[in-house]
Amino acid sequence: MVNGLPGVTALLPALLLAATGLALLLVDTIRPDARSNTSMAIVGAVGSLAALAATVWLTATGVGSADAGAVYLFSDAVKVDTLGLFFTAIFASVTALVLVAGHDYFDDGVNPAAFYSLVTFAATGMALLAVANSLAVVFVALEMVSLPSYVLVAYLKQNRGSVEAGLKYFLVGALSSAIFLFGISLVYAATGSLILADIASASIEGLTGVLGVGIVMMIGGVAFKTASVPFHFWAPEAYEGAPAPVSAFLSSASKAAGFVVAFRVFTEAFPLEMAVSANVDWMLAFAILAAVTMTLGNFAAAVQEEVKRMLAYSSIGHAGYALIGVAALTVDGPANGTVMGAAMAHLLVYGFMNTGAFLFVAMAERWGVGRTFADYAGLWRRAPVASVAMAVFMFSLAGLPPFAGFFSKYFLFQAAIDNGFVWLAGLGAINSVVSLYYYSRVVKALFLDDPASPTALDAVDVRPTALYAAVVFAAVATVLLLPGFGPVIETAEAAASALF
Amino acid sequence: MTAVASSIPPTWYLLLASAVFCIGLFGVLTRRNVLYFLMSVELMMNAANINFVAFALYYGDLTGQVFALFVIALAAAEVAIGIGIILVLYRNFGTTDVTVPAEMRW
User: Transmembrane residues, as ranges (chain B) (predicted)?
Assistant: First the structure.
């Protein structure tokens, strides 16, 4: 460990997030009757930014890098490496954006104390998930993410849409976590261990079938968390019904949390050679899921009339792109580390642009201008800065050249081709073209269309400062990731290569 | 391993756990009342617990038994959240039937 600090320092990001959650509860305890909205937003934002700073500091000092070796804690149940720190950076950034945005979203609503602490506790679970090295920790951390998320989706408890969304999210979530757990129990039955490296080295005597069923069931759990086919049904409902900052949190951070499970667990516990020799080819399963998910997500998004629902389906489509990171792997493939690293970089860029897009929807909900494309017509006349930011998000999500989303997609498809998955890259490119259609519909509505009536834009009368700040910050990050993409992709590829 | 436990081959535990899991899954797919849904999910999680405990004994390894305790705690937390959501569901829709809330199209 660097500078002679104890090994537990490597868990600093997760500890800081947990302490932030507790501090938020403390603020609420001191003044339970006051609406300490601003102080909570400040405490939450400072805490999550501190976690982000700690993550960057740990990465910069080389903790868990391939040279220094990963930091193992708690009898190998936790393994802090660059992969975990990279994902923790995504979680902490999205959490900070969502907490700041929450300040204005709930302005005249209910006491938002629970919102801030639940988001922070879910982020703690994600930070723990990113460094989990045992299936037991994976499951506990996954539940730590899921349980606050169910409540957050149903947060507007007087709102029928929010409650319905929370119910559907809970039903699919409880079912898929039970399936995931049963998968873990079958893997344990076949290998006798829950530590990832020990599962990989265990000798399986005649229980290959049990292991195979276990792996398939675990894929189901991952598919739920990442909102991929066949467990994607909850996503459009939950994202549409939930408060928009919660949709942003779920579709960016929670989705990335699902991918960290896929990236780490499957490559470390079920190495490629073993998967092929034991005839449990999970790479093929992920390839099929990736193809179906991106196609379904993008084509369903193209026929939506509501912007939030369109973003929900587009988020399913992006899960399909990121799944290429675990699908386009082959035994001794030349670009295994590159393709997974590119998927990680895509998730980072996606974290900013997708959060920003949902936060713009949050602003529209705050104004009460309506939910459909037509309701957004001419918004730039009243909100030029936010509209320009939204255009940046849309073009970046579509993957147009001058934005960060283009580079992450380009690297991803290129690496997939290098590894011999031309069909997957080609399908991704076709889907990107489809996505350009519905993303540009938003930009067209914002800038080119005339408002339905002269009074249609009178709703835009408040200036939610914190929401504006979060949206503008996300847009700046999306643009700044363009010159800064080199270090990001290098870190991601180094982190992913350490897994093979 | 005790004499009784070692006299039962591990396959039988797997069969028992799979049977309990399938009963739970059947309940999830057929029942329309959310409370039955919660009970069915509980069955599915406890099926996993049977596996954990049985194979902890089989391998002479405590990991599985300890994890089963974790799972019991998590299942209780999940039910607590679930009951809360069912409560707001009932207040808003006046029912615990999962097919009734369909304001958003699929």
Answer: 12-29, 36-60, 66-90
Per the CB < 8 Å rule, is B74 touching A140? yes
pLDDT tens-digit map of A320-334: 999 998 988 888 888
pLDDT of residue A357: 93
As a whole number, the mean pLDDT across chain B is 88
Token output for A174: 């409880």
| pLDDT tens digits along A24-76 | 888 888 877 666 778 888 889 999 999 999 999 998 888 877 777 788 888 88
Give pLDDT, residue A117.
92
Q: Which residues of A touch B (CB under 8 A)?
A: 136, 139-140, 143, 147, 150-151, 154, 157-158, 160-161, 163-168, 170-171, 174-175, 177-179, 181-182, 184-186, 188-189, 192-194, 210, 233, 236-237, 240-241
Q: Where does the pLDDT of residue A3 fall: very low under 50, low under 70, confident under 90, or very high at 90 and above? A: low
Q: Test B93 with A171 for CB contact under 8 angstroms.
A: no
pTM score, two decimals? Answer: 0.92
Q: What is the pLDDT of residue A414?
A: 92
Q: What is the pLDDT of residues A373-403, one digit of tens each?
A: 888 888 888 888 899 999 999 999 998 888 8
Q: How far is A332 from chain B (nearest CA, A)?
A: 33
So what's the ipTM on this one? 0.94
Instruction: Tell me which residue in A160, A186, A193 faces B63 most closely, judged by beta carbons.
Output: A193
Contact at CB, A163 and B93, closer than 8 angstroms: yes
To the question of domain B9-93 being in CATH 3.40.50.1100, the answer is: no
The whole-number pLDDT of residue B105 equals 56
